[in-house]
Specification:
Elements: H1 2-30, H2 37-47, H3 68-78, H4 89-92, H5 110-125, H6 141-151, H7 161-168, E1 170-171, E2 190-191, H8 193-207, H9 212-227, H10 235-244, H11 247-256, E3 273-275, E4 291-296, E5 304-309, E6 313-318, E7 326-331, E8 343-345, E9 351-354, E10 361-365, E11 370-374, H12 390-398, E12 417-419, E13 425-429, E14 434-439, E15 447-452, H13 459-463, E16 465-471, H14 473-480, E17 490-495, E18 499-504, E19 509-515, E20 524-529, E21 537-541, E22 546-549, E23 569-571, E24 580-583, E25 589-593, E26 601-605, E27 610-611, E28 625-630, E29 636-641, E30 646-651
Helix pairs in contact: 9-11
Length: about 650
């Protein structure tokens, strides 16, 4: 401790001596009388002080004209330069940022600016005669900047750096080195911002060429333009505008014009399809169970997908090909959903019918978002009041050995339903081979009639009704003549005995009755038909065969029907019972599937009546398919399976409208 204290004491003394020696040395350096002309010239070059030659130091300089600042500097030098010794380095030096201190800022008045101009003129008159005067017809940079400031009446609240850049342009040489590749000449430096943006876009297109799908889309649109006769006179102007746009904008413009194109003709062997994100990816972790229904909204403008699952819930998704967000979820705990028509859109697209193996049903208004429970069936009318023998058959099955009625009653269930093309009538498959016709237009929900489909010894009662399809009016009017909406409607019914019935709903008359080719009791499973385009009808069986019939099987006048129609094609690509069959909107694609075997789905090209060979592949993760549906314009196809997933695919030939 003692030695440490002595060391501190010695250090303090040494510091005092050093400080004294430094002060004496500084006084010696600042003494101007000891400097010669060479040392003064060196100080002028290093420190920027005025060079004043003299014989012995002070007072020997030549008399020259000096301004106020020069006199102050000479006076400071006359004092030996010690007048600035007490100043800091920050006060002695400054950084020249190129801004003229004489230029007033935005908040100053015009009078102060004019006074500064007068002072500048007086100062220029007192300067050296060697300076060249500025021509009167060439304004200086400071005067131009002042004129811009004086033109503004109000001071700016803030200054945007981008605005300054717009006025000054972009420097290709002084900026980042990567901007030099935008030059068109070696010595090119400053360009305006609009030209800068154009060159950036051109550089991006050079680095990232136009993809093949975009070129294909443009080529298709260009080819279709020559075949369309419905284009307006301003088509040429629109084409010129599209040529001026960047390539990315032209792609989107071409996509929007696809709504005015002609009919799409799919190739025979190859189906252009790509997979998108699953439509129900937002709820895949909810444990919803098997997908029972996957149905698109009938309106092409409303890209809504209805998904009904085994957990008795219905979910509506907004299909956009990317995220497909969930719109709403409906839960019906007392209504099991077992059939493919458990959730059925009305043809108008304003409501949704939810039914199942119960005598009651629900309706959901899409506009107001409110569900309605119809506890007594179709607006208070139950099917057990009909005098068609259905109630008698039900009571016989429900009675036990002691004569007491068991079960939930003798009311009809609503497992299988189908709306007419205009939505004014609802067909409900009953028991014993009956099809009940319900008036859905008046709002009363009256059961206005029934159609009996039965063979000998009540064979249809054992097989039931397995499928219903309303023949489009465009295909039925040619046989029966034009009439009202209800009178011209025809209904095709597939019974459990593999028999097809063609009914005239207006007259309640069976026009045709024939058995499916190769069918037998219990073999028929699915009935499907086209909603528009070519007239096709498909019948699927439990053997995996799908018989494809033409329009003569349902659109021929009943007086001339003398023989059983022959199928156009028997599709035998599946070996397990057919569970799903669906046509697309223009009757060019038929999707058939079986849920009993994994990945059992095929796409049929109807014009050639052949199956697409390129899809699905061995790596397509379809699973056990339970539901298939096409969007109204066939740009999307949704595939549901037993794992609760709804796979979403995009048919490229139809584009995105």
């Amino acid at each position: 401790m003692v030695r440490h204290a002595k060391k501190k004491q010695k250090t303090s003394k040494t510091t005092a001596v050093n400080v004294h020696d430094t002060s004496a040395r500084l006084d010696l350096l600042l003494d101007d009388s000891t400097k010669d002309d060479e040392e003064r010239r060196l100080e002028s070059a290093l420190f920027g002080v005025k060079y004043a030659p003299g014989g012995s130091g002070k007072g020997k300089e030549k008399p020259i004209e000096l301004d106020d600042e020069d006199e102050e500097e000479i006076t400071a030098q006359a004092d030996g330069g010690r007048a600035l010794a007490h100043l800091e380095d920050t006060d002695l030096f400054f950084v020249d940022d190129g801004v003229d201190d004489d230029v007033p800022m935005y908040g100053e008045d015009d009078e102060e600016a004019s006074d500064n101009d007068d002072n500048d003129e007086e100062g220029s008159e007192g300067s050296s005669s060697e300076a060249e005067p500025t021509p009167a017809n060439e304004p200086s940079a400071s005067s131009t900047f002042l004129s811009k400031i004086k033109s503004s009446k109000k001071p700016a609240a803030w200054t945007d750096a981008d605005d300054v850049t717009v006025a000054a342009g972009v420097s290709l040489l002084k900026g980042p080195s990567r901007l030099r590749k935008l030059r068109q000449a070696v010595d090119e430096d400053v360009i305006d911002t609009r030209e800068y943006e154009t060159r950036l876009r051109r550089q991006f297109e050079n680095v990232n060429p136009e993809p093949e799908w975009a070129k294909k889309a443009k080529n298709i649109v260009t080819a279709k333009k020559h075949d369309l006769d419905l284009l307006s006179e301003n088509t040429d102007d629109e084409a010129e505008d599209e040529d001026d746009l960047p390539s990315s904008n032209r792609v989107f413009a071409d996509t929007r014009r696809k709504g005015r194109k002609g009919e799409v003709k799919l190739p025979k062997d190859t189906l252009s399809i790509e997979r998108l994100r699953d439509a129900n990816q937002a709820t895949q972790n909810s444990g919803s169970g098997e997908v029972r229904v996957a149905s698109f909204h009938p309106n092409p403008a409303a890209s809504i997908l209805c998904v009904a699952t085994a957990d008795r819930r219905i979910r509506l998704f907004n299909v956009d090909g990317h995220l497909s967000p969930l719109l709403t979820t409906l839960h019906f705990p007392t209504l099991p959903m077992t059939s493919s028509t458990a959730a059925l859109f009305h043809p108008s697209g304003q409501s949704l019918l939810i039914s199942g193996p119960r005598p009651f049903f629900y309706t959901y208004d899409l506009q107001s978002g409110t569900p309605t429970h119809h506890a007594r069936g179709l607006w208070g009318t139950t099917f057990n009041n009909l005098t068609d023998g259905t109630a008698i058959l039900q009571r016989r099955r429900k009675r036990g050995g002691d004569g007491e009625t068991v079960g939930r009653g003798d009311a009809e269930a609503m497992n299988l339903t189908s709306f007419s093309p205009y939505g004014d009538m609802l067909a409900v498959a009953g028991r014993g081979g009956y099809v009940h016709l319900v008036d859905w237009k008046s709002g009363a929900g009256q059961v206005i009639g029934s159609l009996k489909c039965s063979g000998a010894a009540g064979s249809a009662a054992a097989g039931g009704i397995n499928g219903m399809w309303w023949v489009p009016p465009t295909l039925s009017d040619g046989a029966l003549g034009a009439g009202s909406q209800s009178s011209s409607s025809k209904l095709a019914v597939l019974s459990g005995d593999s028999e097809v019935y063609i009914w005239d709903v207006g007259e309640r008359k069976c026009l045709q009755r024939w058995q499916d080719e190769g069918g037998f009791r219990g073999a028929a499973k699915v009935l499907a038909g086209t909603s528009s385009g070519g007239g096709y009808m498909a019948v699927g069986s439990n053997t995996g065969y799908v018989n494809l019939y033409g329009s003569d099987s349902f659109a021929t006048a009943w007086e001339s029907t003398t023989s059983k129609p022959k199928p156009l094609k028997s599709i035998a690509n599946l070996t397990t019972p057919i569970s799903t069959a669906k046509f697309n909107h223009d009757a060019q694609v038929l999707a058939i599937a079986s849920k009993d075997k994994k990945d059992s789905l095929r796409m049929v090209h109807l014009p050639s009546q052949s199956v697409f060979s390129n899809w699905p592949t061995a790596g397509t993760p379809l699973g056990h398919v339970t539901a298939v549906d096409f969007s109204p314009s066939s740009e999307y196809v949704a595939i549901g399976n037993t794992r609760g997933r709804v796979l979403l695919y995009h048919l490229k030939d139809y584009g995105v409208w």
